[in-house]
Amino acid sequence: MTWEKPDPGLIHLLEEALVNFDCEMRKMFGCPAWFAPNGQMFSGVFQSVIFARLSEEDRERIAAEFTDAGPFEPMQGRPMREYMILPESELEEPGFLAEWLGRAHRFAASLPAKKGR
């Protein structure tokens, strides 16, 4: 699998959707990722997908509703627990990103704070 730079259009789409969220953007492996105030990552862009960290209930729901949603697997055979790829078919739908990013942000914010370095 060859590595691709993150899609600038998706980065812009995510930046716009997160403008009113209490979060911070940091680079993870050269890709933009967003973190809740407690230091937990909740979303980002990897190559040509937007991923989100979701509760088990929300992961099951999004997988059942959208055939193009699925586990986030940045390295083949190594899915990231709790993370899902958001369905490309819905990214431009009004309110879709706000709803699912809100769910991801609330879930990440409910987790214990990351310890500083």
Key structural traits:
six-stranded antiparallel beta sheet, alpha+beta, 117 residues, Yope Regulator, Chain: A, 6 strands
Descriptive report:
The protein has 117 residues and is of the alpha+beta class. It has one domain: Yope Regulator, Chain: A (2-Layer Sandwich), CATH 3.30.1460.30. Helices cover 30% and strands 22% of the residues. It contains three helices and six strands. A six-stranded antiparallel β-sheet has the order 1-2-3-4-6-5. The relative contact order is 0.20. The mean pLDDT is 93.
Protein structure class: alpha+beta
Low-confidence segments? none
Looking at the structure, what is the overall shape? globular
Which sequence of SSEs, written as H and E, runs from N to C? Answer: HEEEEHEEH
Structural domain tally: 1
The CATH class label is Alpha Beta
What's the end-to-end separation, in Å?
Answer: 32 Å
Secondary structure: number of strands: 6
Strand content: 15-25%
**Main beta sheet:** 6 strands, antiparallel
Strand order of the largest sheet: 1-2-3-4-6-5
The helix content is 25-40%
Task: Tell me, rounded to a whole number, the average pLDDT.
Answer: 93
Please name the CATH architecture: 2-Layer Sandwich
CATH evolutionary superfamily:
YgaC/TfoX-N like chaperone
CATH level 3 topology: Yope Regulator, Chain: A
User: What is the CA-atom radius of gyration, in angstroms?
Assistant: 13 Å
**Count of helical stretches:** 3
